[in-house]
């Protein structure tokens, strides 16, 4: 079986995998920043007292979490042009990942904020801080630390989800594997190679999570 | 006393803290019943009573951590709960010490003390830090300015919490069972600081069962039960000659050991 496995072809295709890897990395990075912005906005809406902002945020989060990312991607890819928005595949892909991951990130941030003990809020209220001051000085710095590990987890999910963009012909890592598979009829070579690259990215992000964990641990400010 | 016969608050001389016929409910539970109580400037009032009697709720109303349902509550000349009253501003005049300290875990002792003075009072950082160091020295923690709360004992944390309140130069200090969460050997170091604050003329309301503290600095002890003020008198009157069955029953329980 292994005698049929062509390492030579993989080496031949390495530049293509390299380009795919680079594309996956930067489009994931942009999508993650977008997702953070979407998540922060949704979370801010979700934490309001009035239903006017909270209801749409909750509905959006539920809708995204209840439906497959592939369906969302196709909805944007095929649906937006019909509404008159013709965007490049790459932009549609980044938009889909940002909007999807943003819903999960909103819940991660909300959990982080809600994990801050009530006494912290009471102490800052009692000292005469305004809502903005106590969020900025007391709640968010503490919530931030709680939120970093699950956010990195979400980043790992996002990188893997970006593979779906190959279906709308974005030239990312999975697309490179598909090309090798279809050009040379070598699916084993193609998909094993991209799996190895995803594993590499996973370990990269995991190392980052470890580093941030150590940094948070040595900040000496935990209770 | 009927409501109609009562003089309009604000027209007569009022205390630093003035409760008049204050009521509060948690659902159907009447947690504060017709509370009328006036605390004069520089007065120290100790509030005691069985758990669930409404003592904490009473002092939490003063800075608006709890809201009152009806009656009047006037603090430093301003009516609490009145939309015209700037509660955020009023709270800067009222220090509140919690049972569970509630220090900011991501800030050092000094930062805990200077945070509100710098951001709320807008005192220049250098000046606030100078004052913060002096306050921490005053509560006996000159060597802990850069320690984080997690590195401090309970007694030390509570002393930082008191310094944090004093940093705002408040007119009133409220203490909600400040020693109840402490190991016995740490109680006196916190009480000593509270005595020092009282002796400087601070207006204080202290929810506590520490009778030594009450006898030493309180002008008045208020005994609450089931949301109402049942009895009030000097510490000596109250501890030596309780007037009601309920206060006698309560004292016999806390004095047994």
Q: How do the strands and helices of this protein lay out in sequence?
A:
The complex is a heterodimer of chains A (223) and B (257).
Chain A: H1 7-46, H2 51-66, H3 69-82, H4 89-114, H5 118-126, H6 131-161, H7 173-184, H8 187-218
Helix pairs in contact in A: 1-2, 1-4, 1-7, 1-8, 2-4, 3-4, 4-6, 5-6, 6-8, 7-8
Chain B: E1 17-26, E2 29-39, E3 44-48, H1 55-62, E4 70-75, E5 78-79, H2 87-91, E6 94-97, H3 109-119, H4 125-138, H5 154-166, E7 172-176, H6 184-199, E8 203-207, H7 211-217, E9 220-225, E10 228-233, H8 235-240, H9 245-255
Parallel strand pairs in B: 3-8, 3-9, 6-7, 7-8
Antiparallel strand pairs in B: 1-2, 1-4, 4-5, 9-10
Helix pairs in contact in B: 3-4, 3-5, 4-5, 5-6
Question: Would you mind describing this structure in some detail?
Answer:
- The complex is a heterodimer of chains A (223) and B (257).
- With 223 residues, chain A is an all-alpha fold.
- Chain A has one domain (12-216): MetI-like (MetI-like fold, Orthogonal Bundle).
- Chain A is built from eight helices and no strands.
- Chain A has helices at 7-46, 51-66, 69-82, 89-114, 118-126, 131-161, 173-184, 187-218.
- In chain A, helix 1 packs across helix 8 and helix 2 (51-66) crosses helix 4.
- Chain A is elongated and about 75 Å long.
- Chain A starts with 6 loop residues before the first helix and ends in a 5-residue tail after the last helix.
- Chain B has a six-stranded mixed β-sheet, sandwiched between helices. In chain B, strands 2-1-4-5 form a four-stranded antiparallel β-sheet, with helices on one face.
- Chain B has helices spanning 55-62, 87-91, 109-119, 125-138, 154-166, 184-199, 211-217, 235-240, 245-255, and strands at 17-26, 29-39, 44-48, 70-75, 78-79, 94-97, 172-176, 203-207, 220-225, 228-233.
- The radius of gyration of chain B is 18 Å and the shape is globular.
- The longest helix of chain B is centred in the C-terminal third of the chain and has 16 residues, at 184-199.
- With 257 residues, chain B is α/β, with parallel strands linked by helices.
- Chains A and B meet through helix 5 and helix 6 of A and helix 2, strand 6 and helix 3 of B.
């Amino acid at each position: 079986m292994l005698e049929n496995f062509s390492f030579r072809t993989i080496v031949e295709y390495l530049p293509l995998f390299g380009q795919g890897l680079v594309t996956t990395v930067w489009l994931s990075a942009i999508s993650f920043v977008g997702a953070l912005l979407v998540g922060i906005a949704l979370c801010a809406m979700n934490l309001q007292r009035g239903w006017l902002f909270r209801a749409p945020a909750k509905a959006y989060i539920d809708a995204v979490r209840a439906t497959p990312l592939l369906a969302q991607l196709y909805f944007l890819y095929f649906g937006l042009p019909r509404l008159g928005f013709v965007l490049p595949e790459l932009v549609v892909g980044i938009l889909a990942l940002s909007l999807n991951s943003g819903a999960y990130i909103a819940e991660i941030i909300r959990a982080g904020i809600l994990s801050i003990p009530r006494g912290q809020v009471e102490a800052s209220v009692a000292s005469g801080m305004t809502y903005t001051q106590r969020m900025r000085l007391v709640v968010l710095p503490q919530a931030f630390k709680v939120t970093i590990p699950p956010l990195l987890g979400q980043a790992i999910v996002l990188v893997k989800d970006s593979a779906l963009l190959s279906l709308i012909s974005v030239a990312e890592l999975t697309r490179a594997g598909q090309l090798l598979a279809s050009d040379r009829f070598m699916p084993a070579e193609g998909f094993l190679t991209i799996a190895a690259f995803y594993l590499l990215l996973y370990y990269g992000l995991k190392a980052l999570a470890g580093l941030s964990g150590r940094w948070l641990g040595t900040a000496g400010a935990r209770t | 006393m009927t409501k109609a016969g009562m003089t309009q608050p604000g027209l007569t001389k009022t205390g630093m803290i003035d409760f008049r016929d204050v009521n509060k409910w948690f659902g159907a539970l009447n947690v504060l019943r017709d509370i009328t109580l006036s605390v004069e400037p520089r007065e120290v009032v100790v509030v005691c009573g069985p758990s669930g009697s409404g003592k904490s709720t009473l002092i939490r109303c003063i800075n608006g951590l709890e809201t009152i349902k009806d009656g009047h509550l006037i603090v430093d000349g301003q009516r609490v709960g009145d939309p015209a009253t700037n509660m955020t501003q009023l709270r800067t005049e009222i220090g509140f010490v919690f049972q569970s300290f509630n220090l900011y875990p991501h800030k050092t002792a000094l930062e805990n003390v200077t945070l509100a003075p710098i951001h709320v009072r807008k005192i220049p950082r250098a000046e606030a830090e100078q004052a913060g160091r002096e306050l921490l020295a005053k509560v006996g923690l000159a060597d802990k300015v850069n320690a984080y709360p997690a590195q401090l004992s309970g007694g030390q944390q509570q002393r930082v919490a008191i310094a944090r309140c004093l940093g705002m130069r408040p007119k009133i200090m409220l203490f909600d069972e400040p020693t109840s969460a402490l190991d016995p050997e740490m109680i006196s170091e916190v009480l000593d600081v509270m005595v020092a604050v009282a002796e400087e003329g601070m207006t204080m309301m202290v929810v506590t069962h520490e009778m030594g503290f009450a006898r030493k600095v309180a002008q008045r002890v208020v005994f609450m039960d089931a949301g109402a003020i049942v009895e009030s008198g000097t510490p000596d009157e109250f501890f030596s000659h309780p007037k009601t069955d309920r206060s006698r029953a309560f004292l016999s329980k806390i004095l047994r050991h």
